[in-house]
Amino acid sequence: MPVRKVYPRSATQEESNRQFATAINEIIDSLPLRVSRGVSSAGSADIEAGGYLCDASGGAFSLTLPAVASFKYRSLCIKKVDGSGNAVTVDGSGSETIDGAATYALSSQYNSVTVYSDGSEWHITASV
Can you give the pTM of this predicted structure? Predict the structure, then answer.
């Protein structure tokens, strides 16, 4: 069997490998998740969901977004699926805003909003 030489790694190479692993983990964490949840009452969105299908036929309610820092480089879609006049209000976590506003209302059937976190604030990237 051939003998394989193993050379010691330099501190610079070790640091480079750590930076590379960190970058890969950030990319993996930013990939959209394909899980959607159905909701019909007030609650908080979690970081495992990629979307929420909201049914407000039983009454208006709010869906609070995750803390923006915990959702860095990810998007979340919220859609109102019922035909009632009850609104679904999308709310930033604590004092966080959505394109500068405290909330975003979905008032008609099939209204939707997609928000993106850059790690420091929520941005609306699509709305219907």
Answer: 0.71
